[in-house]
Amino acid sequence: MSGVATKVAKDRAVAEGLGTNKNPIKYLKQDYEELRAQCLASKTLFKDDQFPACPSALGYRDLAPNSPKTKGIVWKRPSEICKQPHFIVDGATRNDIRQGALGDCWLLAAIQSLTLDPEILARVVPENQSFEKDYAGIFHFQFWQFGEWVDVVVDDRLPTKDGRLLFVHSEEGDEFWSALLEKAYAKLSGSYEALTGGSPIEGFEDFTGGISEEYELKKAPADLYQIIQKALKAESLLGCSIDITNAYETEDITSRKLVKGHAYSVTGAEEVLYKGKTVQLIRVRNPWGEVEWTGPWSDDSSEWNYIDPKVREALDKKANDGEFWMAYTDWVREYSRLDICNLTPDTLTSKDQHKWNVTLFNGSWVRGSTAGGCQNYPATFWTNPQFQIKLEEPDHDHDGSSNDPSCTVIVGLMQKNRRRQKKLGEDLLTIGFTLYRVPKEDQTEVHVNKEFFQRTPSAGRSDTFINTREVSKRMKLPVGDYLIVPSTFEPFKAGDFCLRIFSEKAAKSKEVGDVAKADPYEPEVTDKDITSDFKNIFQKLAGDKDEVTVTDIQTILNSLLAKRTDLKSNGFSLSTCREMVSLMDVNGTGTLSLIEFKTLWMKIQKYMEIFIKADTDKSGTMDAHEMRAALQDAGFTLNNAIQQSIAKRYSDTDLTINFDSFISCMIRLETLFKMFNILDKDNSGRIDLKLPEWLCATLT
Q1: What single string gives the DSSP state of each residue in 24-57?
Q2: What would the DSSP string read from start to end of 78-98?
Q3: What secondary structure does DSSP assign to 511-562, as a single string?
Q4: Among candidates 577, 573, 587, 571, which has minimal Cα distance to 550?
Q5: Is 286 an active-site residue?
Q6: Which residues face 473 on adjacent strands?
Q7: Catalytic site residue 625?
Q8: Whether residue 293 sits in one domain with residue 182
Q9: Which residue among 140, 169, 286, 374 is the active-site one?
């Protein structure tokens, strides 16, 4: 219950602006300004007790405490490593980033990309930090994490061996912003070792909040050049690289001066008229500087002599600065892959370029309720979380006909917090998503059922289910309504995710089935509906009281239940029977009259029919994934969060629900809805309670 309350409070704070880059969440509730002020006042250097300078911060396997690789490691502050440490000298540059004894080159490539854009760098590495003015041994950095920005505090004790930094370091050895940034990211991930292995895209996204796309240039789509032009206009970050076949090829230079296994930036895409034909050009930047392409359209090539002099003057900057032009056809042939990181509107600085419209949803796959697996598992696929997107405005330069215009969207599915779970032996889940076009007659507020997916073909999907942090896909879709279903490949795999939708034009999005309403079976019982046999049974229990107690109800129901070999049950608990009385007791006597007991019995019979229908394998139990359909049959429409709570509370470890647990759930739901409706006097859908009222209501 406290976890739910905490989540509700956090959701309200986020709605008020918490979690933006300008108002980040304080990671682990550590406030940089407060901690720094405390250290300055006490004249002590900060020691981070949330990420202490000890073996556990290094790792859990290869860098585990007492492992061979951690022998001789000493944690030192920069002033103990060099005479005059600096945070940043003359701006952040690629020379500040040299890899150490940690397999996080993916992160370093992303950090290097930050040095190319000072404005984006300043969002990640807050300014006014130094080893000179008001130094207190404390620094902070900001990262995007699954839809929200967090501010991460670290002390400046860094792991060293033989007096030198063990991991990331600057070329000169006296600049420490990159080493401290790596430490903050390690803290966020649980340890330094958790940073081993990854893709630069992961870093791009955590430094910008953007959504990334990957293209293999051997399989480049026909419109990739147009995609690049649009991305550059939108101020996206673009990087390209040449694959290597083995480690020895890293930073090998080809005959035309391109570096293998090296991250380049794509900075321009222009078309020029050359000898009467249009030629597509790509501008590329080598962060090293100096080493430049020497083929066609390079700085001193003859091709420039055959184009309009004004165009040549605008494009051809003859400087050995690492930036150069290539023909698009040469670029596709020479390079292996392209990464595009599309930025969110709050990251962009120019007011002139196109800005994406962004929607983000957080969700969970929970065993027994919303972890349905992919389409290969039709019995459970439909139970996955579902999200709807309404595309009403086509792109201004859409490809489709005027009768069937298209809309560009990028869908990204990202699994959350998997690096932190590495030390627990948890790997990345294999994830993907499927997209369906929803005709008007199938549009509903309710979670879409199994039959819809059996008769409806998919309209798009991620390229493949894969065990990466994020899968994304750019799609051009006709105007219309679509359903997006994110899932793991196999069912019953638990995890948290965020789903992001970037659209060129404004699009309405929502989680399907994010409602809670009830219309349970309410039998109308009169004296005429009560048989003499039923009355005799009741009178034997009630005696002269003409009322049955909780204990009486437990006795008779468990007696009847024991005769049903088709229903597996542990018997109704006294607690469940008390809730039955609470639900049916109109007069508040704590007992049930003959008509009240008959009404209860008819409810139980109705729920018994629903249970037997859901028990398709005749095992006497219900599969937890089948609970959603059973709840709908019983008149309850519930969102995913409630479905997940029900699965956790009422299913066994094997994800089965027996009959008495099912009845207990139905009675509990009826009671809660009834209680809410009584308190919601103006039918607003909200109630306000004082603490004593809340306690009385929940303890009833």
Answers
A1: -EEGGG--HHHHHHHHHHHT-----TTS-SSHHH
A2: HHHHSSS-BS-SSS--GGG-B
A3: ETT---EE--------GGG--HHHHHHHHHHHGGGSSB-HHHHHHHHHHHHH
A4: 577
A5: yes
A6: 411
A7: no
A8: no
A9: 286
Whether residue 366 is found in the same domain as residue 427: yes
Note whether 647 and 545 are same-domain residues. Answer: yes
Task: Return the structure tokens found at 84.
Answer: 């005059």
The length of the chain, given as a count of residues? 700
| pLDDT one-digit tens code per residue, 295-330 | 999 988 999 999 999 999 888 766 666 789 999 999
> 73 lies in a domain?
yes
- pTM score: 0.83
Give yes or no: 39 in active site: no
Active-site position among 105, 357, 362, 558: 105
Question: Strands 470-478 and 406-415, how do they pair?
Answer: antiparallel
What is the SS3 assignment for 60? coil
pLDDT digits (tens, 9 = 90+) for 62-96: 999 989 999 999 999 999 999 999 999 888 877 78
Q: What is the phi/psi pair of residue 569, to 5°? A: -155, 150
685 and 591 inside one domain: yes
pLDDT in tens, 188-213: 999 999 998 888 889 989 999 999 99
Q: Which of 140, 262, 398, 447 is catalytic?
A: 262
In the block, tokens 């585990």 appear at: 64
Measured CA to CA in angstroms, residue 567 lies from 284, 573, 603 at distances of: 69, 16, 17
Going along 242-356, which residue ranges are E strands? 264-274, 277-285, 323-327, 337-342
Domain extent at residue 191: 20-198
Tokens describing residue 325 = 């032009």
Same domain assignment for residues 503 and 618: no
Query: What would the mean pLDDT of 239-265 be, rounded to a whole number?
Result: 83
Task: Please give the Cα distance from 638 to 150 (Å, whole number).
Answer: 32
Q: Which of 111, 110, 92, 239 is nearest to 175 (CA)?
A: 92
Provide the pLDDT for residue 5.
46
